Amino acid sequence: MTTQTVDELFAIDSLLLPEEREIAQTVRKFAAERLRPHVADWFESGTFPVRDLAPEFGKLGLFGMHLHGYGCAGTSATAYGIACLEIEAADSGARSMISVQGSLAMSAIYKYGTEEQKQRYLPGMAAGETLGCFGLTEPDFGSNPGGMRTRARQDGSDWVLNGSKMWITNGTVADIAIVWAQTDDRIRGFIVPTDSPGFTSREMHKKLSLRASITAELSFDDVRLPAEALLPDARGLAGPLGCLSEARFGIIFGSMGAARDCLESAIEYSQTRDVFEKKLAAYQLTQAKIADMAVELGKGQLLALHLGRLKDNGTLRPEQVSVGKLNNTREAIKIARECRTILGANGITLEYPVLRHANNLESVLTYEGTAEVHQLVIGQALTGSSAFR
Question: Does residue 335 sit in helix, strand or coil?
Answer without folding.
Answer: helix
